[in-house]
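Could someone model NAP with this protein?
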Amino acid sequence: MPFAGKRILVTGAGSGIGRTAARLFRERGADLELVGRRLAALQDTLLDAHHIPLDHADEAAVAAFAASCPPLDGMFLAAGELRTGSVEGTPTADFEAMIAANLRGPWLMAHHLGPKLKDGASVVLVGSNIALRAIPDSAAYSVTKAGVHMLAKVLALEWASRGIRCNAIAPGPIHTTMVAVRLAASADPAADLARLAVVNPLKRLGTEVEVAALAAHLLSDESAWTTGAVITIDGGANAVY
Ligand SMILES: NC(=O)c1ccc[n+]([C@@H]2O[C@H](COP(=O)([O-])OP(=O)(O)OC[C@H]3O[C@@H](n4cnc5c(N)ncnc54)[C@H](OP(=O)(O)O)[C@@H]3O)[C@@H](O)[C@H]2O)c1
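Reply:
Sure, complex below.
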């Protein structure tokens, strides 16, 4: 029970990777603060937790929550959103929505909740392996996730004097709602899903549990000397052409 007596905040806790991670952290003993925009989804994740329905890009809401948030041993900032398109083909409103969901949100969480982190805490941000190498049609998403990777490095530097670590993970495709919605918009979802699975050496998609397990490792004292890292979890896709 590595998280017994520890309080961990999870954003994006109402679905996908965040939901799976919240349940894993609970199994390992954590007390949880679950953040997402849909209260019912947070309750479906776990009843035995604090539920905080808010938009992490809404500064007033994040600041109000931070004022009453108890001291934290960790944060797993998994909330994010995917909108597709090239630079020329992406409406500016979609670009701004990507900035809000993927970069402004984790920035505000760090800005307002940093003072709530206990000395020795650990924070894990969720970037993406397509923020390390460009692929077609995900321009705004990739650019904002690249910002998340740098945010983790800057926070690692700024928080080091308090013994607080910060890392980013960069997953490849996981078959969550985010990917399902993207596939549903494709002309041939089955072919696209198969293509996603074969671009990495292990020739399959990852799972939410595999990503959650990496986050748990980075939040635990097992990884006490790891900070400022961007760690891919993508079946080796970023290692090869
Ligand atoms: N699935 C993949 O292939 C993949 C690959 C690389 C990285 N990622 C990243 O992994 C993270 C989790 O994604 P997922 O695959 O688990 O997708 P998901 O099931 O769609 O989960 C995304 C979560 O983010 C929350 N969210 C989105 N915008 C928010 C906002 N403004 N304020 C608060 N919460 C917000 C959503 O909750 P509400 O709608 O209830 O607010 C939802 O629970 C994301 O950061 C994503 O970019 C995913």
